[in-house]
Each structure stands twice: as structure tokens, then as C-alpha cells.
Amino acid sequence: MGDSTSTVSIDVERISFGGKVREHHVETSYGPVSVVVYGDRDKPALVTYSDVALNYLSCFQGLFFCPEAYALLLHNFCIYHICPPGHELGAAPISLEIPLPSVDDFADQIAEILDFFGLDSVMCLGVSAGAYILTLFATRYRDRVLGLILVSPLCRAPSWTEWLYNKVLSNLLYFYGLCGLFKDYLLQRYFSKELLGNGHYPESDIVQACRRLLEEKQSINVWRFFQSINRRHDITARLKHLRCRTLIFVGENSPFHRESLHMISKLDQRCSALVEVQACGSLVTEEQPHAMLIPIEYFLMGYGLYRPCQFNSSPRSPLSPLCISPELLSPESMGLKLKPIKTRISLEV
């Protein structure tokens, strides 16, 4: 990066990940962006990117609250949580005079962030809109991505129906802010009907907590990111040129389920896998994070990464070797053994 790029670092305590993290406000060619760094900077980097109106706390804390996932990921990686512009805690409204960035701008912005931290290549974990941006980044900077872990990803441009529907929602958001109707749309985007409740059953605690977190967002910042994502372009043709392994999670009740099936069909089947999580919406990291543990561990085995032995002693751990029969290492067996998960896998470890 050039000399014009600077950063302000702030030490803050994040109870959701159980310790001290450092938040960096990095100036890029496309505007400032918040990057929360957690872990040992000498370890390989895992970059995360969240969905519309979410940040790393509301998008990934469920996954990192799992002791096994916490151990697996923090043992092997330093985590770099990239927030969509203006989605970080305490963000100020972004001026309307600043041009809307394109999705390509977001991908290039990630490259500048990696340059700032001196990172050559990274593992990526993204959810929905964040998964699209990280995949686009991987197609534009193929040598800089070691692997992709994508949750309910997008890869095609919006259909006319989706574009028009999102345009109406965008206008609603612009003129009325994060009103109840737009919050309901977001919650239906994230969660399954079982958690959303109905006339007979109340909303689950996780949905209520997410609804409260949405109230803290600057509506104009959400509007800008939502607009940019609604203008995304089709990257299907680029998928066959990816050089990294790809692991896709999608809830069977996700509005992006069909999109995920399309995406896995276009990837190289020798180095990609799909995990369909039953009774789950798009936000698998929050709704059913335990369903991600074993597939992620198998995925990381292909890179020579592992979970530390001191965490293997718990007989209740789903990642304990005592609980994993040898035949589970056969991809053909995974769909039968890992309930409530269905897998479509062809990984060469």
C-alpha cells in the first residue's frame, strides 16, 4: 500500500470472544474500514466478512462460542474480522456525498487491508453477501486465498424479481430507516421459521437479540451496503478458475439454498464440498454452529491443520477422536453419520 494509507488502533475488550482484541480503522482507497484482530499475529490469517446489517459479533459469535470451534480456529489462525463499511460498533453515518462502492471495490479493499497487515495469503470465512465478496476477491486475487469457507453464499447477479423486491426494500430503508418491516425482512433472511416464531410461539432468544442489535445500526450505512450488493454481477464463469479448496454450508430453509446448489455445481468437484444443514436458515454460524465443527475440522486437515490435543479429553466433544469412527473419514459416509447434516463432498485430502 502507498504511504497515504494509515490506521488507528484501539484496544477494546470483546466479551463475546472471551478476551482482548485490537480494532484497527484502516484507511483504504475506497474509504475507512474497521478490522478487528484477535489472536497471535504470527499464525496464518483467517479473514471473515459478514452479511448485510451484521458485524463480526452478530454474525460469528455463535460459532466462536463453541469451545471446540474456538480451540480449532484460534489454535491455527489469527482472526481478522472485516466489517462491511459502517457496520462496526459505534459507527457514524456515512455521508451521502461519498459515492457508493461497487462489489469490485470491496474486493480490492480487502487486498489493501491484507497489504496493510503484511498478509500474503489468507483463509476466508464469509456469510451470504460477505461470502460473495470473499469469493469475488478469490477470483480476482487467486494467489492470495488459501481456502474458502462460505455460508449461504451468492454467486449470480440478482434476478429481476429479486432486484425489484430489493429495490423496494432499499427505498423503504432509505426513507424510513430500519423500520419494523425491513427488520422482519433481514430476520427472515437470516433465520429459519422455527426460530422466527408465529402466533402460537414467540420469537427465539437469538432472534430477539439480533433484532435488538439491528436497532443499533446506522440505517444509511446498511442502505449503502445493501445497494451495492443488489448491484452485484454474476461471477459463475470465474468459479472454475479458483485455485483454492472451497467448503460451502447452507441451511435447507435459506433463501439462498438454490444459489448454493448452483455454486457447488460450478466448482471443481475435486476440491469442493457442500454441507446442507437441516432445519436452518442462512445464518448457520448463529443458528446451528455445531453443525459446522466436524466439516471444518476435516476441511482444515487438508492443510495440515488440527485441533490441539488438550481439548480432546472431553467425551462430550463432537470433535473428540473417541467419538469419530474411522469410517467417517470416508466422504461417502459423511451424509449418513453427521446428522442433521447432508453433505456433497469430493475432497482429496
From TrEMBL:
InterPro entries referenced in this protein's UniProt entry, alphabetically: AB_hydrolase_fold, NDRG
Species name: Vanilla planifolia (Vanilla)
A Pfam match: Ndr
Protein name: Pollen-specific protein SF21
Family to which this protein belongs: Belongs to the NDRG family.
Domain of life according to the entry: Eukaryota
